[in-house]
Amino acid sequence: MATGDEQQDPRIAGISSAIRVIPNFPKPGIMFQDITTMLLDTKAFKDTIDLFVERYRDKNISVVAGVEARGFIFGPPIALAIGAKFVPMRKPNKLPGEVISEEYSLEYGTDKMEMHVGAVEAGERALVIDDLIATGGTLCAAVKLLERVGVNVVECACVIELLGLKGRERLGDRPLFVLVNAT
Amino acid sequence: MFAAENGLKGDPRLQGISEAIRVVPHFPKPGIMFQDITTLLLDHKAFKDTVDIFVDRYRDMDISVVAGVEARGFMFGPAIALAIGAKFVPLRKPRKLPGKVISEAYELEYGTDCLEMHVGAVERGERAIVIDDLVATGGTLSAAIRLLERSEAEVVECACVIGLREVKGQCRLNGKPLYILVEPRQIENCC
After folding, report:
1. What pTM was estimated for this model as a whole?
2. Cα–Cα–Cα angle for B11, B70, A49, nearest 5°?
3. What residues form the membrane-spanning segments (chain A) (predicted)?
4. Which sign, positive or negative, has the C-alpha torsion A46, A166, A71, A17?
5. Is the dihedral of CA B138, B144, B148, B149 positive or negative?
6. Nearest residue in chain B measured CA to CA from A88
């Protein structure tokens, strides 16, 4: 976590234990961090949102960008609570109207992320939210889309950081805040 | 049923919500006037009003499950769930949910698709609502209802921001009540 030297907030333990690990999904060798069980735990889900809201409410954030699809679960409640707009960052061909795209690499091949033209304005302060950061490819693409139109990405925020995949490195000097570490 | 005919007649919030929705012509294909809610999400007041209207309706109805249909149901469902103290259950396209799932097929204009829910997400007897941004033919919502009923939950109502022509006049879907905030915007009176 970004604040590793502070005492862990007591709510973190409940959030961490509400996350379910599914072995060998989507393929052998991957230990999938499943947040859906946390969404069934009303206290853990509320605590998750509260921790992000407490961190960002007085930081003049006007944009919360959420990465499809699990970023759509966490981003809107945060946006609503801090008075920001919610901007969905989507897979290709989902957003109607004019979009800008950013390509990013996958383990094999590439994918694309899209954002609506006009959703954000230059100079706005933004957060990027997803449930988890692994290699950082998706988050990085989202950050680049926002930076291309002159938005200041204040921080990336995830529930879980998968350690050992250099996600934090891929984000460079852009701040990353996570609640739970996993290996 | 439409909110305006069911206790919210003249509520100024409904007009703000309607006006925040953008119509994109010929998406995803020619002839379709796509009702784009992303502009609603950019309007903090309209977005908050949308969630508040649903929360006010459901908070005292003993709802313990809010099921949201991927992906735009994810944008509305969680905030409602959090406010009413219910769990949020994502209903997803095939192979997205890890672990054990149940699946329900439904018809598209051409072909079929499938909606999945985690085994064990809901318990027998739980009272649930289903959320999506828009109801058109009701195919997706019907599949959602069946998934919840197969898990022996009671679907109390389906709730959508927008209801298309086909459902106007129908208060029920699969025998379940349908609650809709606004009708689709027409291109003539838009922006």
Report:
1. 0.95
2. 70
3. none
4. negative
5. positive
6. B38
Q: For residues B22 and B129, what is the distance between their CA atoms, to the nearest angstrom?
A: 26
Cα angle B1, B2, B5; round to 5? 100
Query: Which residue in B24, B78, B96 is closest to A76 by CB distance?
Result: B78
pLDDT tens per residue across span B9-29: 889 999 999 999 999 999 999
Is B98 within 8 Å of A85 when comparing Cβ atoms?
no
3-state secondary structure of B92: strand
Q: Tokens representing A143?
A: 């950050």
ipTM of model: 0.95
User: In sequence order, what are the residues at sequence separation of 6 or more whose Cβ sits closer than 8 angstroms to the Cβ of residue A31?
Assistant: A21, A22, A23, A182
Q: What is the pLDDT of residues B89-113, one digit of tens each?
A: 999 999 999 999 999 999 887 889 9
- Is A99 part of the contact surface with chain B (CB cutoff 8 Å)? no
Looking at the partner chain, which of A74, A84, A96 has a beta carbon nearest the beta carbon of B34? A96
Q: Are A181 and A13 in contact (CB under 8 A)?
A: no
